[in-house]
Design the sequence.
């Protein structure tokens, strides 16, 4: 295709950021070449959502398909960009693009710097999420999961991991270790339904009772004080 007479932008990475940047550029009449490491577009919105959340997945997939089907968008999946990859940034520049937009990186890992993080049996959530979502090469990795597991975090990914540990890995006991209090968790009641049948309600009630003074404390600072 002759791009010389068109405004051309190359977008590297087809996660939500890259896709919606592509849509905005395409709406402005820009011809966009969208290059993605994975075959499917979506990034963490495709490979980071639990497999049985099909309503959510299909809703997002419909949005993503509507973007890559725009006539002035070209999508290339299964392409690794960078030195040692399928194509380098210099080779992308040679296409004659006015700009290259790099929207990759959300799939990176962040560790806490704790002793023992490099031991067998300690995994980053991203790796397990990619594993059960069948993303190569993570889908071929073997993860050693014992009878008991601990998950650090209080977000919806924690709920998904606990769901997988209980239903697929058949773990007998899972403990969630969180920095936030019960009033600050980042999952909703609907997501809690996936694991609620496995909750230790007595332990939950004991924990709520333990932290209740701390949860109620800040409110007292905002209560009106009597005027003297």
Sequence:
């Amino acid at each position: 295709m002759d791009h010389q007479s068109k405004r051309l932008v190359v977008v590297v990475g087809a996660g939500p950021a890259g896709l919606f940047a592509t849509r905005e550029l395409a709406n402005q009449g820009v011809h966009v070449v969208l290059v993605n490491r994975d075959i499917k577009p979506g990034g963490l919105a495709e490979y980071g959502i639990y497999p049985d959340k099909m309503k959510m997945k299909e809703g997002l997939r419909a949005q993503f398909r509507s973007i890559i089907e725009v006539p002035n968008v070209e999508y290339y999946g299964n392409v690794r960009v960078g030195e040692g990859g399928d194509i380098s940034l210099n080779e992308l520049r040679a296409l004659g693009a006015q700009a290259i937009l790099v929207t990759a990186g959300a799939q990176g890992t962040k560790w806490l710097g704790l002793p023992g993080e490099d031991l067998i049996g300690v995994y980053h959530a991203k790796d397990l999420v990619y594993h059960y979502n069948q993303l190569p090469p993570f889908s071929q990795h073997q993860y050693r999961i014992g009878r008991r597991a601990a998950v650090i975090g209080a977000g919806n990914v924690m709920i998904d991991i606990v769901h997988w540990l209980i239903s697929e890995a058949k773990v007998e006991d899972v403990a969630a270790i969180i920095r936030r209090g019960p009033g600050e968790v980042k999952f909703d009641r609907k997501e809690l339904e996936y694991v609620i049948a496995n909750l230790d309600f007595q332990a939950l009630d004991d924990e709520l009772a333990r932290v209740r003074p701390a949860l109620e404390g800040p409110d007292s600072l905002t209560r009106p004080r009597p005027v003297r």
About this structure: The first helix runs from residue 16 to 27. The radius of gyration is 23 Å. Confidence is low (pLDDT under 50) at residues 1-5.
